[in-house]
TrEMBL record:
Protein name: NAD(P)/FAD-dependent oxidoreductase
Source superkingdom: Bacteria
Alphabetical UniProt keywords: FAD, Flavoprotein
Protein family membership: Belongs to the class-I pyridine nucleotide-disulfide oxidoreductase family.
């Protein structure tokens, strides 16, 4: 590649206008810096158009219907099934019809300059942007370049897959009609959420997971979600890896070990994601081309000298969730501005506004299946692996008065992971209907390192689901 010289100067160049890039750019600008934000597709990123928002829009009507069926009195009033066309239409309103003009307006109103095109690095502080109209812009960043390019799906090595039409998260969240039959490959978050969404919308779904479901979570989470999927009618096959896939007469044929064939209209491949770095020309700044970009807690890319290259969000591989990426973006944007003003040195104090310290201790996540899985911090196994003196406390959620009011036959479980040496909560998992909104209480307890004896005085209201906190602390022995 020929050497790129010169270029228009700006304080900060942010590559990628997903939720993370937008937040980082905004914070740096609020700190007094001029910012150019570069985007090659839609401003708002994967989350707004093909991930968080449309997937939840597809799931929640089914959950509302199931919740009504669990509530005698309301159940009798519900006589029909989901209106799939209405669900898909509402999903499309959440993606603004895959039109980013409202987000573009926000970028302008926030005082940021938007440059449409594909950005690549061209040596220290230099970014080249190739626009769709064939023009090229060269930018030189006085203070920092921040890479916020997100992630792309990983496709497994599977015979026949490259030649067989398949969905990734984009088609799974953007489809305009309900497939008659759908095979989902994978057992992670995308797989379980999309399997349930499409089954409840009328598809016959088969889920093929090579091990269990939701591998990173407490084991009971995957077990309860698997049971719920099966109760919905999903054919859940764990411990199964297909031998090959093929297209036959407009359908997809998945061949399992032993020769059994699963035939479907669509195949969704949901086998994980990797850092989106392919077009970034990372080698021009001395980095390997395959990512992820490893950063310190202020977002500085560790392997690049001079401290000018930052990264945040999925591309760093730290905590691939919108809220956690935005948190890292706030820290990095503030750190860039503070360093430009001479107010911050190389080291960032842990738990200061310039450090994404929670990434290592308290990442909250909700899996929006029915039942929901809401977790934060360490699982029991992870706490043990870190050498903590662990005690795990479990409670059945159905025994909590608030839960029994929400649904007849409420099924769910809660777990606290306690560090016995410090007598603080280092992890929590709730599985059940409506537990997502419980999660922030646990996040506050973990981040605040609230001693159990003090947590005892946080009295949950009666009769709410939050009373599970009281049951957990009683079970612990308080
Ligand atoms: C199906 C699904 C559901 C999900 N649901 C949730 C959820 O409910 N909650 C949650 O917290 N997380 C969820 N996630 C994860 C979430 O979508 C990501 O963590 C989040 O989008 C990461 O934000 P980001 O800004 O880092 O990356 P992205 O959102 O991927 O944005 C990156 C942007 O960079 C642009 N870009 C890339 N390369 C270049 C380049 N060279 N030049 C210019 N622009 C470039 C891309 O076009 C994109 O717009 C979900 C993910 C999936 C797949
Ligand atoms: N509600 C949410 O917060 C939410 C929703 C969806 C996605 N996300 C995030 O998006 C990211 C991507 O999700 P995902 O579900 O694609 O990834 P994941 O890492 O959660 O799950 C990947 C799954 O694919 C399986 N797998 C991997 N390679 C395979 C192979 N070769 N053959 C068969 N199976 C294979 C794994 O065993 C695992 O079950 C995750 O980090 C997730 O946290 C979050």
């Amino acid at each position: 590649m020929s050497e790129v010289v010169g270029g228009r100067e700006v304080d900060v160049v942010v590559i990628g206008a997903g939720p993370v890039g937008e937040n980082l750019a905004d914070r740096a600008h609020r700190g007094g810096l001029s910012v150019v934000l570069v985007e090659r597709e839609l401003v708002g990123g994967e989350c707004s158009y093909w991930a968080c928002m449309p997937s939840k829009a597809l799931l929640l009507p089914g959950h509302a219907l199931a919740a009504a069926h669990r509530l005698p009195g309301a159940a009798q009033a519900v006589t029909g099934g989901l209106d799939a066309a209405a669900v898909l239409a509402r999903r499309t309103t959440f993606t603004h019809g895959w039109d980013d003009s409202s987000q573009e307006e926000w970028v302008g109103s926030a005082g940021l300059e938007l440059l449409r095109g594909t950005a690549r690095l061209a040596g220290e502080r230099r970014v080249v942007v190739d626009a769709p109209d064939g023009t090229t812009t060269v930018l030189t960043a006085r203070r920092a370049v921040a890479v916020c390019t997100g992630s792309v799906p990983v496709l497994p090595r599977l015979e026949g897959l490259p030649e067989t039409p398949h969905w990734t998260n984009r088609e799974a969240t953007g489809a305009q009609e309900v497939p008659g039959a759908l095979v989902v490959l994978g057992g992670g978050v995308v797989a379980v959420e999309m399997a349930q969404a499409w089954q409840r919308l009328g598809s016959r779904v088969t889920l093929l997971a090579r091990s269990g479901l939701l591998g990173g979570a407490e084991p009971f989470a995957g077990e309860l979600v698997g049971a719920a999927l099966a109760a919905d009618g999903v054919d859940v096959r764990t411990g199964t890896s297909p031998e090959r896939v093929a297209q036959r007469g407009g359908q997809v044929v998945v061949t399992l070990p032993g020769g059994e064939e699963v035939v479907a209209d669509r195949l969704l491949v949901a086998t994980g994601r990797r850092a989106a770095v392919d077009t970034l020309a990372l080698e021009t700044v001395g980095l390997p081309g395959d990512g992820p970009l490893e950063v310190d807690d202020s977002g500085r890319v560790l392997a690049v000298p001079g401290g000018w290259l930052y990264a945040a969000g999925d591309v760093t591989g730290r905590a691939p969730l919108t809220h956690q990426g935005k948190y890292a973006a706030r820290a990095a944007g503030d750190a860039i501005a503070a360093r430009a003003a001479g107010d911050l040195g190389d080291q960032v104090p842990a738990w200061s506004r310039y450090a994404a310290s929670a990434d290592a201790a308290a990442v909250p996540q909700v899996v929006f299946t029915d039942p929901e899985v809401a977790s934060v911090g360490l699982t029991g196994r992870e706490a043990g692996e870190r050498g903590l003196d662990v005690r795990v406390v479990d409670v059945e959620l159905g025994a909590v008065a608030g839960a029994s009011l929400v649904a007849d036959g409420y099924t769910g479980r809660a777990r606290l992971v306690v560090d016995e040496t410090r007598r603080v909560v280092v992890g929590a998992t709730f599985v059940g209907q409506g537990v997502a909104e419980l999660l922030h209480s646990a996040t506050v307890a973990v981040v605040g390192e609230v001693p159990l004896e003090r947590l005892w005085h946080a009295v949950p209201s009666y009769p709410t689901l939050s009373e599970v906190w009281l049951r957990l602390l009683e079970e612990y022995g308080l």
